[in-house]
Design goal:
Number of helices: 11
Strand order of the largest sheet: 4-3-1-2-9-10
Radius of gyration: 18 Å
Oligomer: single chain
Strand content: 15-25%
Number of domains: 2
Largest sheet: 6 strands, parallel
Structural class: alpha/beta
Bound molecules: D-glutamic acid
């Protein structure tokens, strides 16, 4: 496989969560054309068996490569835990960037040395995540409290960013972490940055003092930039950035999400990668 600098970068998620990563990629790499795949027809990944997430991730990667991608960003913690190893093995020469909950930065930031991690159950049960957790917990002596947030990504996917049902879920998952003394909360799912205002409200209502929120969106964009530079694949400055969107779900819902979450007008195309 050979790749050229003027090619696109493929980005995918189970749905619109990856937009919280895409916005940082656009900011860091303004000349980079992007392909975005929202696998909304199969969301939520967090409630699917690992084998299904692996099959979807491989099919989407093939789809994006067939459209000329020179690198891949797995903008989904759940898919990273389940499939990034398989993706790297299948495409050894393709730069692949995955996302992981920011345990390391959180361990450095936490003054009380208690960190809460919000993610899908599937992410928290994944071997890749548990290996990272062991390593960071061991070296930092920080206590990590893990909170699976079943249903939260689906609420966000449905555009329910501040409904009372979403608020209740955020409260149900966050309050126990705050009650146990967490002063740092890791957003371990790319959907969650879109309910940051609700998260901040729940923290304020709990009256527990300052709490730091860790989101790795910008770190992912920096890692992508580093990889592209190292491979000589950085987009030329004469090129204009763009986003071409595909979804296995509703094209109008994806277009609406780009507009409401990022203020961008895009045209989404319906697509069904062959498994
Ligand atoms: N956005 C995905 C993540 O980062 C998960 C959402 C889902 O369950 O599909 O884990």
């Amino acid at each position: 496989m050979t790749f050229t600098a003027d090619a696109a970068v493929g980005v995918f998620d189970s749905g619109i969560g990856g937009l919280s990563v895409l916005r940082h990629i656009e900011a860091r790499l303004p000349h980079q054309p992007l392909l975005y795949f929202a696998d909304t027809g199969f969301a939520p990944y967090g409630e699917k068996p690992q084998s299904e997430i692996v099959a979807r991730s491989l099919a989407i990667a093939d789809f994006l490569l067939a459209r000329g991608a020179k690198a891949l960003v797995v903008a989904c913690n759940t898919a990273t835990v389940a499939a990034v190893g398989v993706l790297r093995a299948r495409y050894p020469s393709l730069p692949v960037v995955g996302v992981e909950p920011g345990l390391k930065p959180a361990a450095t930031l936490s003054k009380k040395r208690i960190v809460g991690v919000m993610a899908t159950e599937r992410t928290l049960a994944g071997e890749k995540f548990l290996t990272l957790l062991d390593k960071v917990a061991d070296s930092s002596k920080v206590r990590f409290l893990l909170q699976g947030c079943t249903g939260l990504a689906s609420q966000i996917e449905a555009g329910q960013l501040d409904s009372s049902a979403t608020r209740e879920l955020v409260q149900r998952y966050l309050d126990p972490l705050l009650a146990q003394g967490a002063d740092t909360i890791v957003l371990g799912c790319t959907h969650y940055p879109f309910v940051l205002p609700l998260i901040r409200e729940v923290i304020a209502a709990a009256k527990v003092g300052p709490v730091t929120i860790v989101d790795t969106g910008d770190a992912i964009a920096r890692q992508l930039a580093r990889l592209l530079i190292a491979r000589g694949l950085l987009a030329p400055e004469t090129q204009a950035g763009s986003v071409t969107c595909f979804t296995s779900g509703s094209t109008t819902a994806l277009e609406a999400a780009f507009s409401s979450l990022l203020g961008q007008t895009v045209v989404a195309t319906a697509a069904e990668p062959a498994i």
